[in-house]
Amino acid sequence: MARAPTTTDAFNAIAEPRRREILDALADGERSVNDLVRILGLAQPQVSKHLRVLREVDLVTVREDGRQRLYRLNGHALKPVHDWVSKYEKTWSERFEQLDVVLDELKRQEEGADGHDK
Amino acid sequence: MARAPTTTDAFNAIAEPRRREILDALADGERSVNDLVRILGLAQPQVSKHLRVLREVDLVTVREDGRQRLYRLNGHALKPVHDWVSKYEKTWSERFEQLDVVLDELKRQEEGADGHDK
DNA sequence: TGCATATATTCCGATATGGGAATACGATGC
DNA sequence: GCATCGTATTCCCATATCGGAATATATGCA
Q1: Could you point out which of A1, A18, A102, B33 has its C-alpha 20 to 30 Å from the C-alpha of A60?
Q2: Which of A14, A15, A82 sits opposite B89 (nearest CB)?
Q3: Does the CB of B3 sit below 7 A from strand D?
Q4: Rounded distance, CA A5 to CA B78, Å?
Q5: A75 vs B82: CB contact, 8 Å cut-off?
C-alpha cells in the first residue's frame, strides 16, 4: 500500500499548504478560479487541480456563472479535524493549565475539610 | 515535486490515521512500543516507523528505560493545526450561529432606535 | 558467553503525488 | 463561425509513501 490519496478525507486534503491557502482565501466569500490564481500566485492548472481535491472531500462547493466557476468554502467538512485536534487543546492551553491549578487546590481544601490524610 | 514528506509538519504527520491512533493511545500517558503494538494491533516495525515520523515533527518524545522506549505525547505540536482549523469553527458551530442571530437582532434594534431606515 | 527480549532499520513494490507544459472544452462576444 | 476567455484535463517525472518481511542493534539475564 502507498500513502492514502489526498482525496481520502479532510486530514489528507489539508496537509498541502496551498490547499489551506485556498481555503483561507475563500473564507471571505466566493471566488472564481482566476481570483484564486491571482491571490495565490500559482499557475491556473495547479489551482484547478487543488480545487478538484478540495471538491472531492467536500471542503468546497462550486457554482457556475457564465464561463466562471465560483468556489465557496464548506467549513463544515473541517469539523472532524477540529473535533480530533481539540481533544488535545488542554495540553497547551493556559486556560486549562489554570483549571488544573484550581482543581488541585479545591481537592486539597476538600481533603483538609474532611480531615482525610494523604 | 512530489507530495511533501510526512515529516514536513504536524499537518502531514497526522494525515495518517494510524498515527492519530498512536497519539490517542498516548493521551493517557507514557507507553512503550510494545504497548502500542498491542493497543493498535499493528506489526511492531510499522509502529516504530510511525513513531519515527511523530518524533521528527515533535509530536512525541522518547525516554529510555532499560530496553524499552517510553513514548510520551507532546500535544503542543498540534497547536498550529488547532489554530488553523479553529478559524473555521464558526462555519458550523451552533454557538456561533446563535451569535449571528443575536447580533443581527441587536443591529436591527439599534437602527430602529436611531430612527434610521434600511 | 549466550540467548531472549525490545526496538529500530533496511529492502521491496505498488501507488500517488504535485509542478510544469500542453491541450481540451465550454461559454461569450463579434 | 471564429477568436478569446475561463477552467479543467492530460502527460511527464522525480520523489515518498506504507506495509511486509527480514535483519540489525542493544539491553538484560542465566
Answers
A1: A1
A2: A82
A3: yes
A4: 22
A5: no
Which grid cell is B55? 518524533
A74: nearest CA partner in chain B = B91
Strand C reaches within 7 A of the B12 CB:
no
Contacts of A91 (CB under 8 A, 6+ apart): B73, B74, B75, B76, B78
pTM value is 0.83
Q: Where are the alpha helices (DSSP H) in A6-114?
A: 10-13, 17-26, 33-40, 44-56, 79-86, 94-114
How far separated are the first and last CA of chain A, in Å rounded? 54
Place of cell 530496553: B67
Tell me if chain A has a CB within 8 Å of the CB of B72: no
> Å from A81 (CA) to C7 (C1')?
31
A5 vs B3, B53, B56, CA distance in Å? 10, 18, 22
Q: What is the pLDDT of residues B5-36, one digit of tens each?
A: 999 999 999 999 999 999 999 999 999 999 99
